[in-house]
């Protein structure tokens, strides 16, 4: 009986020993330091040095777009740039609207009317046109030497003038337009002397108007004189025509 009981005790002890060995082996594989600590309990070590910085991580994804900021202050004006090259000619535009009618311009045709004549007869008769028969200029033949009258052929504004030598007696003459005296000239003769009388005027004439010079009053005022060294002259010319009539 005692032999059987001893055998059972030994078997149980052997199983416990084998189980303890497997547990110890598992503990040694999981943490070698612990196995050393189990049999050698040393003092704790000092903290180690800081490790090197790790590598930069990858860029993250773009965030959502932010709200629009306030406008900044206006900057200073920049320098003027260089002049650019001339661009190509653009297409031709459409015709514009017709403009307003302009004022009537001057005619390209030159209107001429002029005369310059002198006296040949002494002491002309009073109250009739003085016949100036010495011709200095009468290209248009607007002055008639047979009547002593200028006949207007071109309506417009004219200038007339006369310069008379006075001798022997007083002179009173008048310039007529259409049977009406326009201006008068009087000169009182001084004995043993030769005087001068003159006059000029601007007149507007219509076609057909006549202009002449004549002694005014009685025969005592007809001292108009001319000889080979003294002249009495009568002249007139067109300044500008009436464009509405041409």
Automatic annotation (TrEMBL):
Segments forming domain C1q: 108-245
Gene3D superfamilies in alphabetical order: 2.60.120.40
A GO cellular component entry from the record: extracellular region
Principal subcellular localisation of the protein: secreted
Keywords for the protein's UniProt record, in alphabetical order: Collagen, Hydroxylation, Secreted, Signal
Origin superkingdom: Eukaryota
Signal peptide from the UniProt entry: 1-25
InterPro entries assigned to the protein according to its UniProt record, in alphabetical order: C1q_dom, Collagen, Collagen/C1q_domain, Tumour_necrosis_fac-like_dom
Presence of keyword RNA-binding: no
Feature: compositional bias, Basic and acidic residues: 55-70
Localization of this protein: Secreted
Ranges where the record places region Disordered: 25-103
Record's protein name: Adiponectin, C1Q and collagen domain containing
Source organism per UniProt: Phasianus colchicus (Common pheasant)
């Amino acid at each position: 009986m005692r032999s059987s009981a001893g055998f059972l005790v030994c078997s149980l002890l052997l199983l416990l020993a084998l189980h303890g060995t497997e547990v110890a082996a598992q503990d040694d594989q999981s943490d070698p330091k612990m196995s050393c600590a189990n049999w050698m309990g040393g003092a704790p070590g000092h903290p180690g040095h800081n490790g090197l910085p790790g590598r930069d991580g990858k860029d993250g994804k773009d965030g959502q777009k932010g709200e629009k900021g306030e406008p900044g202050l206006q900057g200073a004006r920049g320098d003027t740039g260089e002049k650019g090259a001339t661009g190509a000619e653009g297409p031709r535009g459409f015709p514009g609207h017709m403009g307003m009618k302009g004022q009537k311009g001057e005619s390209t045709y030159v209107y001429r009317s002029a005369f310059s004549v002198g006296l040949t007869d002494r002491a002309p008769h009073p109250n009739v046109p003085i016949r100036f028969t010495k011709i200095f200029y009468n290209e248009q033949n607007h002055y008639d030497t047979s009547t002593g009258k200028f006949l207007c052929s071109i309506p417009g504004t004219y200038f007339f003038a006369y310069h008379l030598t006075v001798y022997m007696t007083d002179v009173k003459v008048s310039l007529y337009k259409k049977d009406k005296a326009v201006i008068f000239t009087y000169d009182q003769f001084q004995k043993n002397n030769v005087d001068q009388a003159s006059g000029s005027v601007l007149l507007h004439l219509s076609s057909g108007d006549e202009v002449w010079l004549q002694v005014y009053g009685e025969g005592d005022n007809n001292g108009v004189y001319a000889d080979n060294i003294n002249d009495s002259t009568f002249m007139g010319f067109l300044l500008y025509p009436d464009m509405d009539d041409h």
